[in-house]
Amino acid sequence: MVKIGQFFENYLKKESFFIDKSVLFSNYVPDEIIFREEQLQEIANILAPTLRLENPSNLFIYGKTGTGKTISIKHILNSISEIASNNKIPFKPIYINCKLKKVADTEYRLIARLIEEFGQEIPSTGLPTDEVYNIFYKLLDKEKQIVLLALDEIDQLTKKIGDEILYNLTRINSELKNSQICLIGISNNLVFAENLDPRVKSSLSEEEIIFPPYNALQIQDILKRRAKKAFKEDTIQIGVIEKCSAYAAREHGDARRAIDLLRVAGEIAERSGSHIVDMSHLDEAEKKVESDKVISTAINQPKQFQSVLYSILFIAPQKKSFFTGEIYEVYKNLCKQTRLNVLTQRRISDILAEFDMQGIIHATIISKGRYGRTRDISLSIDENIVIKLKEVLEKSLNLT
DNA sequence: AGGTATTCACATGAAACTATTCTCTGAGTTAGG
DNA sequence: TAACTCAGAGAATAGTTTCATGTGAATACCTGT
Prior knowledge:
Layout: H1 2-13, H2 37-47, E1 59-63, H3 69-86, E2 91-97, H4 107-117, H5 129-141, E3 146-152, H6 154-161, H7 164-175, E4 180-187, H8 198-204, E5 207-211, H9 216-230, H10 240-250, H11 255-271, H12 279-299, H13 303-315, E6 322-323, H14 324-338, H15 345-358, E7 361-367, E8 373-379, H16 383-397
Parallel strand pairs: 1-4, 1-5, 2-3, 3-4
Antiparallel strand pairs: 6-8, 7-8
The protein binds a DNA duplex through helix 4, helix 15, strand 7 and strand 8.
């Protein structure tokens, strides 16, 4: 008890590096967005007609993760709605991230979410979908207004449930008397629109804007600005920011990653009692960010997924690559031990495909000629994470 | 030797099924007038 | 008679299973030289 008390005492006395850590979290919207002036201007041009109550063109935004799409849209929505409310213009910005599970990842839930935006509750299940649509229409058309609907990670949505909703949404306008709705699609899949229904495609991508990745120098600038707000002066060793941005630039210029990295490095430094954030903290942060990502995705998977993953980890040290069938055999034995019911190979195949998508494994479909066709699978997780991951999975699956 | 046909071991797709959660509806029940 | 209870019908959704079809190239099997 005394020790813990002492710890808190010391903790208080110790000075923090941070002035305002929230600046380094990914949901922070800075009041100035650098290196995106062109795109911002373009978006502004396209959306400006809303202020005159004219319906603007639908807009589509492409760009990889961490290239500032989300932040830019949020920024623009904020400033339009500010001006709109100053001038009493009936304008309603809605931002929805379609990837959020249980929130907006199905047709029903997306519409339900929209209805919520208009201040009405909808049961999470039980109602027929067209009923929900009707409520939405009525709500939307009750008064004259322009709705700007930004759908982030829209590719996730269509991947899961097809493009019917988008078709419905683009068509809504012709059925509304008072309101107009304008869609802004945000996707980090550059070829997303290719496999959309042509009708949807043409009406959704009336305007397209591409967000290119940042280069190392730009990330450096962004980091410096954020760091200035987040950290106290002279708490970061020279070179740390440079290295941090180099890390991130290496992976297609993901600014979000760089910012995350910097924050974690700061946290590590603080905890270790150092008076400055130095390179070693950064290195450690990189490891931690990586392993946290892997472990938290693993932990959040259902039991069956965990079993399959564990089976993979079991084989991995023995061979550099292995096939679906081998994993299935191991998995079947594992299920016997854990008393889980055994899923069909068909299902395992899908699970493996998902792991591949998540980047946990690397799988290529190969043909072994006379000996069939299968996935050639190799683990793409760092070795020292594997050990930790294995422990975590054993605990979760109640293995001894 | 060169060409063709087979064949393996899965991949991939579509549809149907199961279980769970939740609403809505209408029949039956109850308490008070 | 109004309010309440409760079972059953319908929906949405996630996670599977079942059935059906596809597939790339190493081998087996010919064929003609």
